[in-house]
Write a structure and sequence with these properties.
By secondary structure, the protein is α+β, with helices and mostly antiparallel strands. The chain is built from five helices and ten strands. The strands form two sheets. Strands 1, 2, 4, 5, 7, 8, 9 and 10 form an eight-stranded antiparallel sheet that branches. A two-stranded antiparallel ribbon has the order 3-6. The two termini are about 20 Å apart.
Length: about 160
């Protein structure tokens, strides 16, 4: 029997190039997302839990989401579309919150590849991107620049042969 081709795999480092740009699909942030996120993380800050406090003392109006939620959703969008079987390690990043994300906002990620350095072990590379999380109005709410280790075609073939 012929081996079936995998579908839905992420990007291989040897198929991308510095300067390449792409974007993810969108994801709407819901009230339930905010409640579940602050509950499971323990981010029980009044800005996220007390709408009356927010109305009287908050720096903004509306059901605001933690910046960490927007970042986590962005990473989820990227894992689904760019890192299945090819993302090997998250190494570091700098993150800058530029503005709020509210319940009802739809966010997506715009990515530019900044750096690709093949590793000494071969078949892998260190890849840095610049990621902008944008809302439905085109406003940038967060920027970050993750450094990741990514598999190439050679590494993926070895992983598949070993059953990983």
């Amino acid at each position: 029997m012929a081996e079936l081709e995998y579908v839905g795999l992420g990007l291989f480092w040897d198929d991308i190039e510095v300067g390449q740009k792409f974007r993810t699909v969108g994801r709407t942030v819901t009230e339930a997302d905010i409640v579940n996120f602050i509950g499971c993380t323990g981010m029980l800050e009044v800005l996220f839990t007390d709408m009356e406090y927010l109305k009287e003392h908050g720096p903004m109006q509306g059901r605001v989401a933690p910046g960490a939620l927007a970042y986590c959703f962005a990473e989820g969008l990227l894992v689904q579309s760019t890192m299945q079987h090819t993302g090997l390690a998250f190494l570091n990043m700098e993150l800058d919150v530029k503005g709020p994300t509210f319940a009802g906002d739809t966010i997506h990620v715009e990515v530019e590849v900044l750096e690709i350095r093949p590793t000494s072990k071969g078949g892998r590379a260190i890849v840095r991107t610049f990621n902008e999380i944008k809302n439905q109005r085109g406003e940038t709410v967060i920027t970050y620049n993750p450094l990741r280790m990514m598999a190439g075609h050679e590494t993926h073939k070895l992983m598949m042969a070993s059953g990983d």
